[in-house]
Amino acid sequence: MVPLSTKAVTILEGLPNNGHGYVFPISFMTMNNCFVAARERAGIANLRFHDLRHTATSRLAEKQPNVIELASVTGHQTIQMLKRYYHPSAEALAKKLG
Length: 98
What we know:
The chain is an all-alpha fold. It has 2 domains: 1-47, no CATH class; 50-98. It is 60% helix and 0% strand. It has 6 helices and no strands. It has helices at 6-13, 28-42, 51-63, 67-74, 79-85, 90-97. The N and C termini lie far apart (35 Å).
């Protein structure tokens, strides 16, 4: 379980209930095929779906600087695992230094 913003909860509550407990009632293959098609349309090479977790974690870190809370939001059980996904930019770190 991970915490969600009130906006995310509102959006999810507005979705139809499919009775299966899934937010998106599609198969992995369908989701993967859609992702690959979108990636190709965008002209982005060497992007995997899982890469999005790295990007999201790094962006969330800008809003949630407390690493314990960040790990809770991203679903990482250890700080060591969080470190695999958090890749701050030099610019972001310099900004924090002032």
